[in-house]
Amino acid sequence: MTSKLEFISRRSPIVCTGGCVASNQPLATQIGLDILKKGGNAADAAVAVAAALNVTEPTSTGIGGDCFCLFFKAETKKVYGLNGSGRCPAALSLELLKQQGFDEENPLPPSHAHNVTVPGAAAAWVDTISLFGSNKLSLEEILQPAIDLAEFGFPVSEVCAFQWNSTADKLQASNNKFGADLLINGKPPQHGQLFRNPSLANTFKELSKQGKKGFYEGRIAQAIVQVIQSNGGVLALSDLSHHVTEEIQPIFTTYKGVKVWETPPNSQGITALMALNMLETFTVKDLGHNTADYVHTVTEVLKRSVSDCHWYCADSAVVPVPTKELISKVYCAKQVKLIDMKRASESNNHGNPFEMGSDTVYFTVVDVHGNACSFINSNYQNFGTGLVPEGCGFTLQNRGNNFSLSPGHPNCLAPGKRPFHTIIPAIATSADTEDLLCSFGVMGGFMQPQGHVQVLLNMLEFGMNPQQAVDAPRLFVEYTKKDQKWHLYLEDGFPDKIVEDLKARGHLVHWPITGHDRSIFGRGQIITKGDWWRSPEISSDSGKVWWAGSDPRGDGCSLGYCSVNDQR
Description:
By secondary structure, the chain is of the alpha+beta class. The chain is 32% helix and 18% strand. The chain has a domain at 34-89 and 110-247 and 371-401.
């Protein structure tokens, strides 16, 4: 397949008054909208979208992976959260890995069965509905559209087809007996080709009828354990049956009158909040959008927040994480003093123990009542491990690849521990009124907090509407262990004179990033309540119009409808 992917069209933001959905697949977006029209709320529709995306974009997401959720409840004006990530098998330890020849210098291959932590998505889907749902629709009704898609088939979209073909080797591997369930006659589907997944439909049926037990006990659980253990892993039935979703207290910081909400460690939401705290000390608008000064400032801020996160971010139920201190204004102000506006920094105090991965879906839903669900679901790297349990129709994630194998690292692997997690949903509210401003996110491994910062600044500082905010060219900062250097990636759309300026300051610049390579900049979705981004100050007007944008780097779209009886 060609790697050429032209960006030659434009999109207008979606505007509506009833409900709205923005996701990475049009079919999934439509399914979410249908659930809203049937009386479901934002949480119900989000789970329907999550299931539909498992069908239509199995490269990136699915029930064999993990998820996180933030839910804004209009009635209370509060933000609630769920951590749907899984834990390390009880029988897996650094000692066992060492006996098998694996350590920090010789890490596990990314697709090794040891990297499968307990898949947390299925439990979190059920808990999202039970905790935040409307109670008007059953789990079976919410999952039925995805079941239909899987049983009767759907035409594969363009970007997904490219990803499917690029990573099909995992499904075709000789040790992956049931990988063929996600292929057509042994080959990945092409753009526009109909694909059916009856095994996944049956998995969803069992979940819808039996709830969490239908996944974590019985046939599906046994199939998961069998494929892992036959490939050298140690995950057991007890690891699955003991899994629980964690209700979390979302963390936030304020940026110029806006409360930005993220999920706490073991996810990397602290990265975005630290960066915003540092950026608040600059006159960002005066720097100019995507100018050399702006890119340099954002890059240097991100280096510091990313570096801290890669050391401190870990399972806070197992090790102490100084979250409050890291996202404090005082600490971030000290970090700013280390920035030289004329020269790029080269040091990385903590290092980066992880390999890059960007296979995730982010989507968001709002309903006629004013509730918002910010949701992210992921397999991690290219189908995760690629391992497919017998008769299940989904692949198992490889989130354990984000554990450190260094005994002194806060995020070191340990039995029953959750690994560092890249996936983060976000919500923004008014610091004065607590009203919802937007539900948003950008998927893409370590790009995610960097994307959160950039699209939020695009609206808050530069007055862009949601679609313009996700359209704008992005930067991505990465520290690589191989050469122990910071790399700055710039998307096509930055002028060459800016690139030369940044190189002169000492940045190791990669530009222009084009076509399918743009995937390193992630794919985002945004829904705002009202048009507050048009004004330099946040309006207290609750607004009656939803505005939505969907990332052009993906296959998706945002859709909405107008309600005759607007109940907001």
